[in-house]
Amino acid sequence: MKTIPETTKDITVTNIYPSRALIFLLACSCGLIVANLYYAQPLIGLIAPDIHLSPVASGLIVTLTQIGYCLGLLLLVPLSDLLENRKLVLWGMGGGLLTLIAAALSQTAMVFLFSCFCIGLGSISAQILILVAAHMAPAEVRGRVVGKVMSGLLIGIMMARPVSSFIAASLGWRSVYELSAVAMVILMGVLWRLLPSRVPEAQQHYPELIGSLWKLFVHTPELRRRAAYQATLFASFSLYWTAVPLILASPRFGLTQNGIGLFALVGGAGAVAAPIAGWLADHGKSHLTTGLSITIVALAFLLAWYGGLHSLVALLVAGVILDFGVQTNLVVGQRTLFSLGEHARGRLNGLFIAIFFLGGAVGSALASVSYNYGGWPLVCVIGMIFPILALFLYSTEKPFKF
């Protein structure tokens, strides 16, 4: 496949190999930033009555955060192809900081919900940091560098829910946002000092940049294919991690909120997949790795079905290998897209993440419905359907060369 014609040119970080310390900083930063999207999910039962939000409308807390993030991916991440990236990251984090403070201080549902929407917008700084890492890394090791940074982001996703549960249990839900705001202040200071500058030499204005998103989607078949793979797998991921607390808290297992939090902590071990996936992609194994990752997700739900009926350990192992498969495919997908043309990485990544987050929203929406109507077996059947659809699409793929 041909790369996308170049219309911009980086004049700073290109070909500068990132140090281990910088990679670690980027990984930690991505994890801390993206965790803001997930802190509220296990706390809805505490937050809603405190801000006078009805139980029926409490789902808006998660929904508006996701909507803000998706809009940020489509409208703000493409700015990384136009504006200096370090300032863009810091401005995004600054906006997120203000909304974290607003969330912690909010007394009404309207203020808190608007804060959730803006927290989603501000969290796109994590995706821009991944792009900076991709630009810094030479092509032959780009997958490994992106994989290491992605491992931090994915650990942030997995750890956000149990961490917020533990903090809220001891200090109250507002302390979660207060402590996150403090972390963002410290992180902004470190990134301001240590994050290298990247200035794209843009030849487009912002309206043209946003208008080009549709053209990129239509004329980049590898984007459509990779987004479809990840959307189906992320739907399974969201389905599992939204439904599994229901069965863990049921009389079958009877776990407390802290027990469920510990379950999620151990489940986060699947994040080790990211560097492994990057190494495989760098060695020309993207096609094979994609097929294996999709198959692993399907097999994880077979094990989860057995575990939900017989064994907590099997249920936990299923969560770990599910994460492993989803994260492997994510890193391979991003590495593939980053090879298509560095001038469009921001837009390609924004489209890719936005599309598969929609898949995640579908999975989350199906979780409680499927569990209420068919119990854990129906959750697992639906969880297997998504990767099976991805395998049908995968059967039509020719190995991608880059």
Structure description:
- The protein has 402 residues and is mostly helical.
- It has two domains: 12-202, Up-down Bundle (Growth Hormone, Chain: A); 204-397, Up-down Bundle (Growth Hormone, Chain: A), CATH 1.20.1250.
- Helix content is 76%, strand content 1%.
- The chain has 15 helices and two strands.
- It has helices spanning 20-35, 44-50, 60-75, 85-105, 109-122, 125-136, 142-171, 173-194, 206-219, 221-249, 257-267, 273-282, 286-310, 312-338, 345-394, and strands spanning 9-10, 200-201.
- A two-stranded antiparallel sheet has the order 1-2.
- Helix 4 packs antiparallel against helix 5 and helix 7 (142-171) runs antiparallel to helix 12 (273-282).
- The longest helix is centred in the C-terminal third of the chain and has 50 residues, at 345-394.
- The protein is globular, with a radius of gyration of 20 Å.
- Mean pLDDT is 82; it is low at 1-15.
Strand and helix layout:
Elements: E1 9-10, H1 20-35, H2 44-50, H3 60-75, H4 85-105, H5 109-122, H6 125-136, H7 142-171, H8 173-194, E2 200-201, H9 206-219, H10 221-249, H11 257-267, H12 273-282, H13 286-310, H14 312-338, H15 345-394
Antiparallel strand pairs: 1-2
Helix pairs in contact: 1-6, 1-7, 1-8, 3-5, 3-15, 4-5, 4-6, 4-8, 6-7, 7-8, 7-11, 7-12, 7-14, 10-14, 10-15, 12-14, 13-14, 13-15
Please describe the structure with a list of short key phrases separated by commas or semicolons.
single chain, 402 residues, mainly alpha, Growth Hormone, Chain: A, two-stranded antiparallel ribbon, disordered N terminus
Strand order of the largest sheet: 1-2
**How many strand segments?**
2
- Write the CATH homologous superfamily of the largest domain: MFS general substrate transporter like domains
The SSE order reads: EHHHHHHHHEHHHHHHH
CATH topology-level name of the largest domain: Growth Hormone, Chain: A
Question: Mean of residue pLDDT?
Answer: 82
Helix content: over 70%
Number of domains: 2
CA-based shape: globular
Give the percentage of residues in beta strands.
Answer: under 5%
Transmembrane segments: 21-39, 51-76, 88-105, 111-133, 145-164, 176-195, 227-248, 260-281, 288-306, 312-331, 351-369, 375-394
Keywords: Membrane, Transmembrane, Transmembrane helix
Domain Major facilitator superfamily (MFS) profile: 15-398
GO molecular function, one term: transmembrane transporter activity
